[in-house]
Amino acid sequence: MRQTNPVAPLSPSRSAVGRQTWRPRIVRSLATHPRRDYWLERVPETPGRYQVRGVTGVIFILFGLMKAFDFTLPILVGAPGLQVNTGVEGFAQLISGIGMPFPLFNASMVIAMEVVLGLGLILGAWTPATRLITRLCALPLAGDMMVALLVGIRQIQGNPVMIDGYAIMNQFWRLPVELGLLAGMVYLLWRPAAQAMKPHLVPVPSPTRER
User: How high is the mean pLDDT of the chain?
Assistant: First the structure.
């Protein structure tokens, strides 16, 4: 009788094994990540939150532009008779009186931050990543208002910021506006997007059979 050799089982090729090992990784990478999707999704806003974003964003944009232009900087200085440089250099002179280092660099950064991030507060309601954009905008602006409030506290304590013998930034409206802006930024940091509305279930009476 002819002796037959047993057929060896076919072993998968190396490329097939590679495809099988990479396939689960691709599936895992394409799977949803709830935490990532939480920060990257667009969340519809409520009318009240639109107002918070719009009012605070517009005020920050106006404050930034007022610091940059010659004819509006004296309004922020609040010291008639004080001769300061105009535009960014003038604002750098003001913050140097506060004691901030690198005044020209920091003045440019504050102006750009208030304009760009104020615009981000407004547009963040219509863009993806609503929560992420809102917090990235609100956090630096909250720090900006905390520094401004330190100046206001000095005014209340009778130790105003002086430049050439003039008390600067001593207007009556500054402290309430800065407190309101800080409160708005803290609120947006605490709740960067509107909460999801829970469906309201209305009980439906069961139909009764007529006798």
Answer: 80
Q: Is pTM beyond 0.85 here?
A: no
In this prediction, residues 184-188 reach a mean pLDDT of 97
**Rounded Cα distance, 109 and 122, in Å:** 20
In this predicted structure, the answer to whether residue 8 has a pLDDT above a threshold of 60 is no
**CA-based max dimension of the chain:** 121
Per-residue b or e along 86-106, where b marks 16 or more CB atoms closer than 10 Å to that residue's CB: eebebbbbbbbbbeeeebeeb
User: pLDDT at position 3, please?
Assistant: 53
Whether 86 and 172 have beta carbons less than 8 Å apart is answered as no
Q: How many angstroms separate the CA atoms of 94 and 168, rounded?
A: 8
